[in-house]
Design brief:
By secondary structure, the chain is an alpha/beta fold. It has a domain of about 170 residues: P-loop containing nucleotide triphosphate hydrolases (Rossmann fold, 3-Layer(aba) Sandwich). It contains 13 helices and 14 strands. The chain has a six-stranded antiparallel beta sheet with strand order 2-1-4-5-6-7. A hairpin with a 2-residue loop joins strand 6 and strand 7. It is globular and about 75 Å long. The chain starts with a strand and ends with a strand.
């Protein structure tokens, strides 16, 4: 898979911009020159959401404008050419997004993951130090590229969990007000219906996440690291469904048996919205406590590389690697180690944003120099 070109209009700092990419491309420029904007646009063409999870589509619109357009041309691993076009507009403060794939109007669920990219960001060091939600978000983005149904399951699951939490709050309020048992029983019946839907989506999400983390764990075990590193999937339902002949039914029963417990907590406390990935060193000690800063950076990059291989193994498509100023955070030894591993991965397109030109690292790269 290879991105040929990107065209941007009113996207971040660019009013009108176009560039083409080679197999290995270096985006070279000072801070504020638009390096990260280009990386963001390539990522957006894959999952149709901003690179940073705390931002929205509205944040991508150039200051003073009310729309952006993005067009990407790429070739898949079978040699077929494709185009992705996104038109986002804010009209009377109401946002509207239109997506076309090969000139046919489509939606986010169908288009996500057609272009397979894996971004490497400085924020990825939070894979070790950060919150469970950061790690879940990282896993989700990889699985969007692998399974179209995963995106739909996640969206539907998240919607139902919000409704369930609102209903739990309402039941507790009715109980505290001394509401009659009949009204409360009706709401509890609705809560059980929510659990039926939750069980279906939760099983699909959990099994796909478990497969990914098992793959990551095996990948990391094969790496010749100067320290021990293990990866585990932490889930409060995985033992319920992993070896079950009817996981949806068993999870539904498990949710029902914990209904009063969730009411006591005042929210949903069972399901993949609470999953985590645990990284540990020798003796099951937390990696974030016992690894040095340099080791954390190396582990974070290897973690993402394992996901690159997972996408390739499951889709038979080679994803594109995007590096946003990550290389500059590594020492010389680890820079060489990272690029040796990249070269060993095979014929992957690599696009790197950097403020420095290092011939030892970027020799052979096509260089795109960005002005102030």
């Amino acid at each position: 898979m290879k991105i040929n070109c990107v065209e941007l209009r009113n996207f971040r700092i660019f009013s009108d911009f176009r560039c083409e990419f080679g197999d290995k491309t270096l985006l070279l420029g000072k801070n504020g020159s638009g390096k990260t904007t280009i990386i963001e646009s390539l990522y957006y063409g894959s999952v149709f959401s901003p690179l940073r999870s705390f931002e929205t589509d509205r944040d991508l619109v150039r200051v003073g404008e009310n729309f952006f357009n993005l067009k990407l041309g790429f070739v898949d691993d079978y040699g077929y050419k494709h185009d992705i076009f996104v038109a986002y507009e804010i009209n009377e403060n109401k946002p509207k997004k239109k997506i076309k794939f090969d000139d046919k109007t489509t939606n986010v669920v169908s288009a996500s993951g057609k272009l397979k990219v894996v971004p490497f960001l400085i924020e990825d060091f939070q894979l070790v130090f950060g919150s469970p939600s950061w790690r879940r978000n990282t896993i989700n983005k990889v699985l969007f590229s692998v399974s179209e149904s995963y995106y739909a399951d996640l969206i539907n699951y998240s919607k139902i969990i919000k409704r369930k939490n609102a209903l739990i709050k309402m039941i507790n309020e009715k109980r505290s007000e001394g509401e009659g048992d009949g009204a409360i029983e009706d709401m509890i019946s609705l809560l059980k219906n929510y659990n039926d839907s939750i069980a279906k989506h939760a099983v699909e999400l959990t099994l796909k996440r478990l497969e990914l983390i098992n793959y990551v764990s095996e990948f990391m075990q094969k790496e010749d690291l100067p320290f021990e590193l293990g990866v585990k999937y932490k889930s409060n339902i995985v033992d319920v469904i992993k070896n079950s002949s009817d996981p949806v039914s068993d999870l539904r029963d498990y949710l029902s048996s914990n209904l009063e417990k969730e009411l006591a907590y005042g929210k949903s406390i069972i399901g993949p919205h609470l999953d985590d990935v645990v990284l540990y060193t020798k003796g099951n000690k937390a990696a974030k406590v016992f690894l040095s800063q340099g080791q954390v950076r190396m582990v974070s990059i290897l973690f993402k590389l394992s996901m690159v291989k997972y996408i390739e193994a499951r889709t038979k498509q080679v994803p594109i690697l995007l590096f946003d100023d990550v290389i500059g955070e590594l020492d010389e030894r680890n820079k060489k180690l990272v690029f040796d591993k990249l070269l060993a991965l095979g014929n992957m397109q690599v696009i790197v944003a950097s403020s420095e030109m290092d011939e030892n690292v970027f020799g052979g790269f096509n260089v795109i120099k960005l002005g102030d």
